[in-house]
Amino acid sequence: MRAPHSRRWVLSASCALVVAGCALQSPPTTADLQRDALPHTAPPSAWKAGGNSAAPLPEAWLASFGDPALTALVAEALAYNANLQVAAARVEQAAAALQVASSPMLPSLGLLGTYSGKSGGGGGLNALFLNASLELDVWGRLRYGEAAAGAQSQAVQADYAYARQSLAAMVAKSWFLAIEAGLQRSLIDDALRSAQELHRVAQDRFRVGIGDEQAVAEAAANVGSYRDALRQSVQARAEALRALELLLGRYPAAEIAVASRLTAMPPPVPIGVPSDLLERRPDVIAAERRVAASFNRVGEAKAARLPRISLSASVSAISSDVVVLQDRSNPGYGFGASLFAPLYQGGALQAQVEVRNAEQKQAMADYARIAQRSFSDVENALAADFALRDRETILAQNIADNERALELAQIQFRVGKVDLRAVEQRQLALYAARASRVRVQTEALAQRTNLYLALGGSFEAVSTTASR
Q1: Which of 134, 150, 239, 327 is most exposed by smallest CB count within 10 Å?
Q2: Contact indicator for 94, 153 with CB cutoff of 8 Å
Q3: Which of 175, 209, 154, 224 is nearest to 69 (CA)?
Q4: For residues 236 and 243, is the Cβ–Cβ distance under 8 A?
Q5: Which of 56, 79, 81, 156 is nearest to 456 (CA)?
Q6: What is the number of other CB atoms lying within 10 angstroms of the CB of residue 153?
Q7: Which stretch of DSSP H or E encloses residue 308?
Q8: What are the residue ranges spanned by the domains of the chain?
Q9: What's the DSSP call for residue 123?
């Protein structure tokens, strides 16, 4: 009669301990985190660099460039880029770590069997043991660990989402740079042909006696300078192609075909307001989730200083033809409870709490760093977008003026009013203006891509989760 009474006492005590177990404290909310981590960074009501904030940021920014070839390259990079595959593997690792952290919340079962024989035949000692145990998470240590692993898994998923967006942006910018490299080479080709024509004219003038040898030498030197510039542009184009191929997971052979002209600039982007940015950008979300994970790690470390209570139960069956077993019921059943209280471990448990507190401070500081960087990314991209649009207008007029000045200088050179250096100066100025305009057009497309990435917009028609 005492066994049933003892069983009821153990079960009652266990239930009481579970009921009395402490509830988990929740990590700081997004609003609390922004207040505590960014006390000196107050987001304004609108972006300081300007821009349209009336509408939310549109999705599928990649399609706004209207370039099917670029869209296909981004899809190729998503499938074969090695860095993205590393990020995807981290997502799988975090999911498995969450499963590991959740497993102690369930009972553990173990089975042990033995069999032995004896000389001359016949059976020896045979036994079968089935054991079950469960730690009662009275103080929340296991739940804190599970919550930390869950928050860490969410952070890694957000990292993967940001890695996808960053890769799409890198492919787009590399595509624009590769196109620009080809355009710059074409401009140098044109300048070289003009320089060669000037060299021919200088030789003709010297031959008929209205020129001099210095003008011929200067024209030849000018041709050599453009030939060197052309060689540099060929190398720059090859490097741009290899960089793009590397993003795509291809062998960097500088053989990828690119467009012959830059795509048109997309229309202005609705940018929303700064206060919405921190809840939209995946890298900021990842940092916020790491703060939550570090908060739960602190709770886990504090609970590790308290006693651990576990329940166990077992079933066993033993038989033997050699040993005379005590007369008892077979199979047998057993149950019990254990208590482990860490009394002294050299200060290791308290030191672990201090470690986790420091990690939480680090996570909050990292959140502040990423949040501040996100504001800076948007402001810089907006300011660059406006400045580059103004520069393109200025350069377009500058090119027209230089074309007219070169035309007049060439006429004056042919009639002997100016020397060759005046023509070369005007030619160099025109080439520089044309090259600057191509550079500005490319940079404008790259900054628009940076703006999309900075705002946290998705490049796909439908936002995908960070899973594979």
Answers
A1: 327
A2: yes
A3: 175
A4: no
A5: 56
A6: 23
A7: strand 308-320
A8: 32-105+139-306+361-455
A9: B
Q: How far is the C-alpha of 219 from the C-alpha of 364, rounded, in Å? A: 63
In the three-class reduction of DSSP (H, G, I as helix; E, B as strand; rest coil), residue 86 is classed as: helix
Tokens encoding 21: 């177990």
61-101 per-position pLDDT tens digit? 999 999 999 999 999 999 999 999 999 999 999 999 999 99
Residue 453 Cα to chain centre, angstroms:
11
> Which residue positions in the chain have pLDDT lower than 70?
1-22, 52-56, 58, 117-124, 320-330, 461-468
Which superfamily is assigned to 32-105+139-306+361-455 in CATH?
Answer: Outer membrane efflux proteins (OEP) (1.20.1600.10)
Question: Which residue type does 427 have?
Answer: Q
Angle made by CA atoms 133, 134, 139, in degrees to the nearest 5: 150
The DSSP annotation for 366-433 comes to HHHHHHHHHHHHHHHHHHHHHHHHHHHHHHHHHHHHHHHHHHHHHHHHHTTSS-HHHHHHHHHHHHHH
